[in-house]
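ugh ok so i messed up the first submission bc i forgot one of the chains. this is the corrected input, ALL of the components this time, i swear. 706 residues overall. if the numbers dont match what u have on ur side tell me asap before i send this to the collaborators (the ones from the other lab, u know who)
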Amino acid sequence: MQRGFLQFATALRSRRLLCSRCSRSFLRFQHAEASNDAGLSSPIVKLIEKKVEERNQLQTQVNALEDMGSADSKRLMKQLSESEPFWNAWQDWSRTIQLLRETGALLNDPDPYMRSMANEEYASLQSQVSELLQMTFPTLVVPPSKTAHMSAIMEFKAGVGGSESALFLAEMMRMYLRLAQTFRWKTNVIASNQTENGGVKDAIVEIMGEKAYDTMRFESGVHRVQRVPATEANGRVHTSTVAVVVLPLAEESNAEAPDDLFSMDDIKIEVMRSRGAGGQHVNKTESAVRLTHIPTGITVSMQDERSQHQNRRRAFQVLRARLMDRKLTQEVVDRRDVRRNLVRSADRSEKIRTYNYAQDRVTDHRLGLSLKNLESVLEGDSLRKILDALAKKHQDDLLQEELETS
Amino acid sequence: MPRLTRLLSSLSSALGPESARLELKWMKEAAERSSGSLRLPAMVERRLRGEPLQYILGTQPFGALDLLVRPPVLIPRPETEDWTLRLSRLIQPSPERPISLLDLCTGSGCIPLLLCNTWKPGSVNAYGVDISEDAIQLATDNAHRCGVHVPAEMQPRRYPFNTFKPMLANIRDPSFLLSAELRPPFHVITSNPPYISRQDFENLPPSVKGYEDHRALIGDPTVYPEPPCSESGKGLTFYHTIAQLLAQQDILTDNGVVALEIGFNQADDVRQIMQNEGKLPKTEVWRDPWNRDRVVFAGR
Ligand SMILES: C[S@@+](CC[C@H](N)C(=O)[O-])C[C@H]1O[C@@H](n2cnc3c(N)ncnc32)[C@H](O)[C@@H]1O
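and heres the new structure output, hopefully the right one now
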C-alpha cells in the first residue's frame, strides 16, 4: 500500500500534473496528517479554481440582471452556461478530496476491519483523484482541436538510399493505406511515381475522414530504414530515408473556388509541353498542369490523371492543403511570440522514426519509444499505439502550455 | 517485372521516358480494371504500332465525365474540353428558363453531354447531329453512360432533367434543316466541325491519320459544293456551311450565341465568315490552354 501510493504520487509528478510539494502532501494524506488542502494546489487545480471563481462572479452578475432579454444578458448567460463544466468538475473534485481526507483519518484506525475498509475506499478515491487530474481537468482546459474535421494529404519523397529508399516508400504507403482502412477513412493515391522494380520515388495520397489530419499529422518528418537491401549481395546494412509531409485538407466542394487562402489573380496556371497545332491535329495525351502561387512561390505539378481538368483539380487541392498548412504553422509561430511555446511546429527535416530490420525494432525518436516486432508496426497495430502516444504527448504539451500561460 | 521493364523501354524509345511512364501506368490500371479482357503486353504492342492510347483504353475523361471512345469516332481533345467548360460557366440556364442547344458534328457527343452534366437539371434540351452512324451510336451509348436522358421526340420539352438527342444527318445536305426535323430556334449552337486542310492532312501523325475517321478531320470534303476558289485548301468549308445555316431565319434566338472550334490559324477567316455570311456581327476569339486561337464565339 505504502509503495503503491508512493508510485501513484510520483507518477503524477512525472506527468507534471503535481509539483513535488503536492506529491509530498499526498504522502501526508497517507499518514492522515494533512489538515488543510493547500498542498493540492497543483497548477491545473489552481487554474480550474480560477475558472470557477470567474464562473461564480458571472453567476452573481446574472442574478443581478434586470432585463433578461437584452443582448448583454444573453451574452452573460451564454458565458455562464459555457463555464458550467468547470463548476461540475470542481464539485466532483471538492467532494472527492473531502472524502479522501475523512478516509485518510481512518487508515490508522485501531479496528482492523475499519482499517481494511478504509484502505479499499482510499484506493478507489485515489483513482478518482487521478482521473480528475489526468483526464477531466486537462480536457476542460485544453481548447478542442480546430482541425478535427479535416482530412489529410500525405506527401512522400524518397531520400537517401536511391532504389532501396523507393522500395521502403512503397511499403510505408501500404502501411498507411492499411491503417486508413482500419479507421474507415477513404484513400486515394493522387500521384505516384513508380520505379521499375516496384518502388515509388514520390507519391501523394489523399486520406479522407474525420480526424484524419489530427491523427496523421505527427507522421511528418524523416523516416529512416536500416536493413539489408534485397539487391545487396554481400549483406551489408544500408540506411535509407523517406520524407513525409502531412497536410490539412479542408472539405471543399470546389478546390478552385478562391477564398481566404488565395485569390485567383495570384495563381499562374501552366500547361506543360507544347501540342504543336493542337486540336484535331493531335491526339496525344498532354494533361500535365503546373500551378504557381505567386506570393509564396509554391508550385504544384500534377500529371497522373489523363485529363487536364482532373490534374488541375488535383493540383488546386494540393495547393490549398499546402497553403492551409502554412497558415496553421504561422498561427503556431504567432502564438509562440506571445507565449512561451512548448508545442513546436513540426520540423520536417527532423528524423522522427527508425525502422531497424536487423533488430526487429521501431524507434520513435520524439517519444523515446522503441517497439519490438517491426511487422506489427507495418501491419498497423503497433503504428496505432505510436500514433496514440504521439497524440497524448501533444495533448500534454498543450496542457503544459495552458498552465504556464493562464 | 523484367517484362515490364522491357515494355517500358520500348515505349520509352517511342514516346519519350516521361510519357512512357504515365501511359504504361494508365494501361496497367485499365488492364487491372478490365478483369482479364485487356492484357498489358497486348496493349503496349498496339500502342507501339501507333494506335492512340485512348482507343486502347476505351475511354477518355472529359471534364467530370468519363466517355467511351471507339474507332473511328474522333477522340475528344483537351482543347475542346477546355472551351466547353468555359462555355458552361459563361452561360447558366435554369429550370425556370430552360434553353435548347444544337451541336453540329457531335461525334462522341462530348460537348452537349458535358454541358448537360454541368448545367442544372431541367435547364437544357440538347440535340446533336452527325453524318457517321458510328458516331451516333457512340453518342447514344455515352448519353446512357453519363445518365443523360435520350428522348424519343424531337420537340423540346420540360423535363426535371437535361436531355440529349443524337441524330444521323448530313449538315451539308441542302434540305438538312427540314429532313432532320429539327425544331429551331436554338439558344446555343456549338460545333467542332472538321477543319484540317488537305495539305495538313497529308502530314498528320499516324495515330491520327491511321485511326481516326477522315470525315471527322478533313475540312474540305471533295464532294459538292466546291469551296470558293479563293480560299480552297484552308479547311474552311464547314464554316461556310454553318454560316449559311445560321443566316436562315429563326434558327438562332435573338440573343442566341454560337461557339465554333477552329484550327489554330483560322480565327480571322472564321470571324469574317460568321460576320459576312452568318449575319452575326459580334465575334470574339478564345484561346486554348496552349495559347492558340481555338474558338470563335459569335452573337448578334
Ligand atoms: C472533329 S469531329 C468532332 C467530334 C466531337 N464534336 C468532338 O468535339 O470531339 C467532326 C465530326 O463531324 C462529323 N461530320 C463530318 N461531316 C459531316 C456532315 N456533313 N454532317 C454532319 N456531321 C459531319 C464527323 O463524323 C465527326 O464526328
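quick check: Residues A 280; B 74, 76, 80, 105-108, 110-111, 129-132, 135, 170-172, 192-194, 213, 215-216 surround S-adenosylmethionine (CB under 6 Å). that seems consistent at least. The radius of gyration of chain B is 20 Å.
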